[in-house]
Design a protein that fits this description.
Length: 365
């Protein structure tokens, strides 16, 4: 065979391949477009039924609509797809009615079974649905996925427990983090903190128990969340963590929490911290906490802290004197006359205060 014939055959095959790929691409595009149109048509039929049901179920005249939703099976969409986007926006009875339909359709049971799937994407979707529905029977299934080998599934399980939001969900989350399984497949602290904050004061008892957890990260999360939630009965436990915990991050979390709670009974422990603590961040947090409590008896300790060798502590202590009003500002003006021992911090804070309050600092800066 001549070279020309070989080149002609190659060119013909190449052209046929290009035409074949072009036809295949066009067919796939047309198929996607048909499916998208069908999807929109089905949603356009299903959405009004759902809205009418939510608008009329309280009147007791929506049994037919409920039966229609329970029996609905679309080709390109599903009741679950529509509900998944709607559930997070609903509260109260409307949300409960939709969850009831999900139960009657068998969706909740299927989702619970789906958390055991061998495919990560199915486990992810299943636990997301359990969280969106907020069903307490899903707590054991979501808790089991906290140790999943897939990171996205573990994070979805954390979100689900936060959305379900009961004391059992909080306990499952904190106990897992403090377990050997939790150390094997770690979860970042931020999503856990957000989930516990979402659960709210229902998480008080598990959080209080977690102050004694073996893991530093768990104790740190517990201290910070208890402070943000304003759990005043936890003050004694937080004071103990601040005084005795060997981890600086736990002491810092406990100090933050005591500052947020601002209980006068914490002032003694906080001033004691100013004399014994070596971590700069904890010292600064203790000063800030005392600035929230505003106990006049702590002013001498704050004045002493203004002379600390580290500038972070000096500024924090000087700022803590500002909430004491005229007394605190007078002390700062005296300190500001010094060349050392906190004079720089006092001058800086007085300057900031004068800008914030549009007043004259009354010293030569």
């Amino acid at each position: 065979m001549s070279t020309g014939a070989i080149l002609l055959i190659a060119a013909t095959l190449n052209l046929a391949l290009i035409i074949g790929l072009s036809l295949t691409t066009a067919l796939l595009k047309a198929r996607r477009e048909r499916r998208a149109r069908r999807h929109e048509q089905e949603l356009a039929l299903l959405r009004p039924v759902m809205m009418r049901y939510l608008a009329t179920w309280e009147d007791g005249d929506a049994h037919d609509l409920a039966d229609m939703l329970i029996g609905y099976h679309g080709v390109t969409t599903s009741f679950e797809e529509l509900v998944a986007g709607l559930l997070p926006k609903l509260r109260g009875a409307d949300r409960s009615m939709l969850v009831d339909i999900l139960r009657r359709r068998g969706t909740i049971d299927q989702a619970r079974q789906g958390t055991g799937s061998r495919w990560a994407v199915r486990r992810y979707r299943a636990v997301e649905l359990l969280g969106a529905a907020g069903v307490s029977e899903g707590i054991p299934d979501a808790a089991a996925l906290l140790g999943d080998r897939n990171t996205d599934v573990r994070l979805a399980a954390v979100r689900a427990l936060g959305r379900i939001g009961t004391v059992e969900a909080a306990a499952a989350l904190l106990e897992h983090l403090d377990s050997d399984e939790g150390r094997k497949h770690p979860i970042p602290p931020h999503p856990v903190t957000m989930a516990l904050l979402r659960i709210g004061t229902d998480a008080t008892d598990p959080l209080t128990r977690a102050l004694e957890a073996g893991q530093v990260e768990v104790r740190t999360i517990a201290t910070e969340v208890l402070g943000v939630l304003g759990v005043y009965p936890a003050v004694a436990g937080l004071q103990a963590r601040m005084r005795l915990d060997p981890s600086a991050s736990v002491r810092l979390g406990a100090t933050h929490a005591l500052g947020r709670l601002s209980m006068p009974s914490s002032a003694g422990d906080l001033t004691a911290m100013l004399r014994t603590e070596e971590d700069v961040e904890v010292l600064a947090a203790a000063c800030a906490a005392l600035g929230r409590i505003i106990d006049p008896s702590t002013i001498p300790d704050l004045e002493h802290a203004v002379a600390h060798p580290h500038p972070t502590v000096r500024v924090a202590a000087a700022m803590a004197l500002v909430p004491f009003g005229a007394t605190g500002l007078d002390r700062l003006r005296e300190i500001a006359q010094r060349d050392a021992e906190g004079g720089d911090a006092a001058r800086e804070v007085l300057a900031r205060n004068s800008i914030a309050t549009d007043t004259t600092p009354l010293i030569s800066l």
